[in-house]
Sequence to fold (547 residues):
Amino acid sequence: MRSIKTIEENFRFLILEVQNQVRETLSFLEHPTPKVYDKIISKDDYIDNLKNIIENKCFSSLNTLNLDQDSINRLRAIHVMAINLERIADYCVNIARQMGYLSSPKIIEILSYKEKMEDVYNAIGSIINVFDSRNLPGALAICRLEDDLDAVYKENFDRIMVQLRIGRNVEDHITALFIIRYIERIGDSLLNIGESILFSIIGEKIKIQQFEALQTTLSKSGITGDVTEVDFQGIWGTRSGCRIAKVEERDTPQAKDSIFKEGNLRKIRQEKTNLECWNALFPGLVPRIFGYHEDGEMASLLTEFLPGCSLEEAVFNVEEDILDNALFVLEQTLADIWEQTRKPHPVPSTFMKQVRDRKAAVFQVHPELRRPNLSLDTLTVPSFTQLVETLEAIEAQYCAPFSVFIHGDFNTNNIIYNHGEQRIYFIDVYRSQYGDYAQDISVFLVSNFRIPLFDRHSRSRINKTISNFFNFAQEISIKQGDTHFDFRLGMGVARSLFTSTRFQLNKKIAKNMYYKAIYLMERLIDASANNQSFVFPLNLLLEQGTN
Fold:
């Protein structure tokens, strides 16, 4: 297409101009002259215009042309690279301007930068070939220049600090520090450019650290070849802070699909430990581990991909008898888990501590939900903070009479149902531990309640799911002689309703969940103060849908 071709032509011109800026800047650092300075400054507007033209044409093409996914990815990559090339040109202009503040150009002779700036020049010149040929090693080489320029910055920073400590040419050395800082920032832009090329090759946004973790973890799992030989499909919507993607081997007989997760070392290591623990207790309930890799403060995990649908999808996407069967299998699975892992030792619940820990995050999203102390004559209404503190003190009196191995984050999207195999699977078990089974029950109930479907048919299915699961849980509690189950469940549901508001930007829905949490907390405090038994008000979670 002609429009795509003109974008690529403009992009080639942009690369040439930015490469020239780097060359002229390197020349100016060594031999500053007014002629070279004017050349650098005069090119700034032209480069800005080229970037703007590319940006406009990219968006126009995306909106007006019927492009395949590879072409869309290519345009997205060009757009990001154009932005970062323009930034590199800006850094060159900033470097040239900083040179005017030096009392003598000889000051920067103490800096070591020339070799790496030449590498920058060559890297920019390689962009087109690397991009067009989908050259994975070439993209990685561009990315890794960022580390090299960071090292150059650190080396020169230490050298400048020595001069500043002895008070020699303070203003000049501060200016030299600014110059080397701009050189370091060129590396940040090169990293963005290299990662954009990775995106165009793989088809998913991925950082170089995640790419390297994926490559290493795939290798350890026994998958041969490199990342270009697998389909890598990012899974969005996770709130864990981890990068999660589905990995599929291409053109491989009996290929095994898998899930790649990369993130904080502590979280990933804990998830690996919990997966091993679950598989030891109940083989096949959670994914098998194919590969694991640690790198500094980060770790990556490659696990089995479990076929089926999440229970959340089953609530509104499958026939009613299939949903009924899914809930039956889930209840039988949980009953088995709770029976086999039961330890006859009381365990404290920590629902109000969880509320306290997440309170700041909730009020950051919904500051209007802060409830201060209120009073009218002799009537006082405690603040939300006071409610939490009061109930936290009461909570210590209501331990669970036994502990079981719980999931820890028992949302409906962490439960997989395979109808063909009549099996339930658990995923995302980072928070699994021995604890109060009311924790998993309350999270499950609220995760159904907050499904964003409000028509009458969908709410009817959701209400049925909530009611059936609640009845199942209550039967278990009665069988186990758990006399304070309703009280702890009330605290757990209040906790989940409140903390869930931080993921809900709809003010009306957030307030609904918040006031239901307040209602539960006040009822629990009153029941405790009056030595009354608390009966969980199930109707609180059952809402009528609209036509």
